[in-house]
Design brief:
Layout lengths: L1 H9 L4 H11 L4 H9 L7 H20 L7 H20 L20
């Protein structure tokens, strides 16, 4: 889990994308937003969902940088909203995090 949050902390994206995602974060609803990206049904734990979202966002970032014709800024912002939302849940709702390793350090949430 620390690796996932650490990866999220090191992402550098254009300020406009981040600003739009932060605005959308206030309306984040896990079932609706995450369901669009991981499929309907039983939603994964936040740490697993965040790992999946990071992979998806990396592909979108690549498409943005190479000016791919299929790139959608709207989809990119939606993924960033979900990433931020899941990161917040990891920091505030431990039941959505895999707690099988009791000796694991608590997540650092100061960057969110």
């Amino acid at each position: 889990m620390q690796d996932v949050l650490g990866t999220l902390r090191t992402l550098r994206r254009p300020p406009l994308l981040i600003r739009a995602a932060r605005i959308g974060l206030s309306a984040y609803r896990r079932e609706a937003h995450l369901g669009r990206h991981v499929g309907n049904g039983v939603l994964p734990r936040s740490s697993q969902a965040l790992a999946h979202l990071i992979e998806t966002e990396a592909r979108l970032e690549h498409d943005r940088k190479v000016h791919a014709t299929g790139y959608s800024p709207l989809q990119h912002v939606d993924i960033l909203i979900a990433m931020m939302g899941e990161a917040q849940l990891i920091c505030t709702a431990p039941m959505l995090v895999d707690l099988s390793n009791k000796n694991a350090p608590q997540p650092k949430c100061d960057a969110f």
